[in-house]
Amino acid sequence: MKHLFTALALSTALVVPGMAMARQVTVKSQMQAYGGNGAYLAFYLTDANGAYVSSLWMAGRQARYYEHLTAFTTAVRGNYRQIDGITGASVGQGQTLTLDINLDDKFFDAGFVLHVDAVAEDMRESPKEIAMPLSGTGASARGRRYIATLTTAF
């Protein structure tokens, strides 16, 4: 019994701090009625110096269009392998894309920025559609061309 209690206490001490270091963020993108095909969106983080940190989500599965997400392509230096498993369908005009993403607490209120690049087939690229500092209280921003509003909430 003594060993069971010790093992339980040790495992709890190891697991609980890890759980406290991340939080789920709901990112909601409401698309504008822009009059075209579904948009490809790249969601990614940069640090306080503007250096690429991580890809969060790619809306759009056909790799041949990724190069048109020019700021994202520059940030990842054309290496799209890191988005394997974090892709979904493109997002149509007027639709809402809702993502639930787990992010480390270190990203909030520390200068990290959530970026969204956008493009739709046969339409103009929007390489810096949104750049929004990650705030621990959530935030809202307006897009430049394809996204009407983007909100983050906890």
Brief overview, please?
The protein is of the alpha+beta class.
- Oligomer state equals single chain
Q: Determine the structural class based on helices, strands and strand pairing.
A: alpha+beta
The fraction of residues in strands falls at: 35-45%
Number of helices: 2
The number of distinct β-strands equals: 9
Taking pLDDT < 50 over at least 5 consecutive residues as the criterion, the unreliable ranges are 1-16
Shape designation:
globular
Rounded average pLDDT: 89
Q: What's the SSE pattern?
A: HEEEHEEEEEE
Q: Mind telling me the C-alpha Rg?
A: 18 Å
Strand order of the largest sheet: 4-3-2-6-7
Helical content, roughly?
A: 10-25%
The major β-sheet equals:
5 strands, mixed
Distance between the termini: 40 Å
Overall number of domains = 1
What does this structure look like?
The chain contains 2 helices and 9 strands, in the order H-E-E-E-H-E-E-E-E-E-E. It is of the alpha+beta class. It has one domain. A 5-stranded mixed beta sheet has the order 4-3-2-6-7. A 4-stranded antiparallel beta sheet has the order 5-1-9-8.
Task: Summarize this structure as a short list of keywords or feature phrases.
154 residues, alpha+beta, five-stranded mixed sheet, four-stranded antiparallel sheet, 16% helix, 42% strand
Write the layout of secondary structure elements.
Elements: H1 2-20, E1 22-31, E2 39-46, E3 52-59, H2 70-75, E4 87-88, E5 96-104, E6 113-120, E7 125-133, E8 139-142, E9 147-153
Parallel strand pairs: 3-4
Antiparallel strand pairs: 1-5, 1-9, 2-3, 2-6, 6-7, 8-9
